[in-house]
Amino acid sequence: MKKRTIIEPFKIKMVEPLTFLTRDERKRVIDEAGNNLFLIKSEHVTFDFLTDSGTTAMSAAQWGAMMVADESYAGSRSFERFRATVEKVMGFSHVIPTHQGRAAERVFFGQLVKSGHKIPSNNHFDTTRANIEFLGAEAVDLVVEEGKDPANPAPFKGNLDPVKLEKFCAENRGKIPIGMITITNNTGGGQPVSMENLRQVASIYKKYGIPFIIDACRFAENSMFIKTREAEMGSRTVASIARETFDFADGCLMSAKKDAMSNIGGFIALRDDRWLADLRNLLILTEGFPTYGGLAARDLEGMAVGLIEVLDENYLTYRLAVSSYFSEQLNRIGIPTMRPAGGHAVYIDAKAFLPHIPPEQFPGQALAVELYLAEGVRSCEIGSAMFGKFTTESSGAKKFVPAAMELVRLAFPRRVYTQSQFDYIIEGFEEIALNKDRIRGLKLVYDPPYLRHFTARFA
Q1: DSSP codes joined into one string, 43-72
Q2: Distance of alpha carbon 386 from alpha carbon 402, whole angstroms
Q3: pLDDT tens string 7-24
Q4: What is the pLDDT of residue 5?
Q5: Which helix (H) or strand (E) holds 280?
Q6: Under CATH, to which class is 23-52+313-458 assigned?
Q7: Confidence (pLDDT) at 40
Q8: I need a labelling partner for 30 at 20 to 30 A (CA). Which of 137, 202, 291, 398 fits?
Q9: What is the pLDDT of residues 233-274, one digit of tens each?
């Protein structure tokens, strides 16, 4: 039978009009925002690919569940439904809700991480790294070498290098309170981690007595990649792959604004109760009672439904196809992307696309600005604007240390945009590709102390 076109596996019941500004109008907007896409109002954006976090179109089933939520301050029925769903999907019986992922990080790291500690992972993303560094600890990236090369077609470029991890754990005994891995690897282009790598990493952490914590934001997408790319996994269900993934770990941190298909929420989930009392006490101090964690019960209901819906393989097939299609079309018109495409986003290789702009002039940020000017597309730089650092040499001079890669992430909200809209955007990208030599670099004029990319200003 002829292969059928992959379609959106849903019907649209409600619509929101798009905003169309002229290039001159967008120029005024971006100038006022200091060339920072985070500082632009959504009413001035046509296609918002800044993030896939909290931008999901929620389903009829989610909205229906939210209508029957139990908003009791303590002991809510909605919490128990949510907790039971997390245990069903992930196998963790102890669940602590928070208002979003970085709150889970703040509570968890605040209890376990101390100054001088070192936390290994494949790649830490922005808030994870910031929360670790805020406590005086070091977030250490040990991704495999092929994960640093956007053009390398390796299927699991998000893997944590087991040789590097073994060496790191041996050399830093007593300094590693937890070990992590991020699925999928957002900093490294949304690249997946294989089941075999999860097994290797878990074995190393166990050997050195280090608790294993998964940053699980996009666990369902990672599970679908395992199903389609790992030889012996093709006959497995995504749900069973996800469950085995978590069976390797002692717990997870989750932003429910990604693969729980929710507009808000997060949680800590743990296999045993060794840290539970202390974490709950800190939660009460900073977020709320342990059965709501800073959320309304209707949000707990929405997350519970979303954690089941995200494992639907028709949805995941469509989700991964969107990124693959968009990446292929950009490559066709001469815009290089991280290959193979990730699940939640397409990452443009700004270093390769704009070789005339040096890292200290932020080629990724410059390209993100041009995408907005040309198409009204809001994207996110993941390069030297986000991760570059200034160090002080012995002479007292400041030295700029660029990020390993200069990427621009186009993160696709779940169940929001259609095929024709993606084709419309690609048509506009063709003009950008033809005139790429005209794009100029940027200089940093305001550099905040943490999470630079959220509030920095460029000229």
Answers
A1: GG-SEE-S-SSS-----HHHHHHHHT----
A2: 10
A3: 889 999 899 999 999 999
A4: 83
A5: helix 276-286
A6: alpha beta
A7: 96
A8: 398
A9: 999 999 999 999 999 999 999 999 999 999 999 999 999 999
CA atoms 95, 214, 249, 180: torsion sign: negative
The class (CATH top level) of 60-309 is alpha beta
Flag whether pLDDT at 2 surpasses 70: no
Instruction: Give the DSSP letter of residue 161.
Output: -
275-315: pLDDT as tens digits: 999 999 999 999 999 999 999 999 999 999 999 999 999 99
Q: Give the three-state DSSP class for 339.
A: coil
Query: Which structure tokens are listed for 426?
Result: 């690609």
- Would you state the structure tokens that stand for residue 166, as one six-digit string? 């073994």
Which residues belong to CATH 3.90.1150.10 in the chain? Answer: 23-52+313-458
User: Residue 274 and residue 280: Cα distance in Å, rounded?
Assistant: 12
pLDDT at 1 over 70: no
Angle between helices 77-90 and 297-309 (to 10 degrees): 20
Q: Write phi, then psi, for 188 (nearest 5 degrees).
A: -90, 25
Categorise residue 20: left if φ over 0, alpha if ψ from -120 to 50, beta otherwise. beta
How are beta strands 94-98 and 398-401 bridged, if at all? unpaired
- Judged by DSSP in three states, 95 sits in strand
CA–CA dist 411, 53 (Å, integer): 9
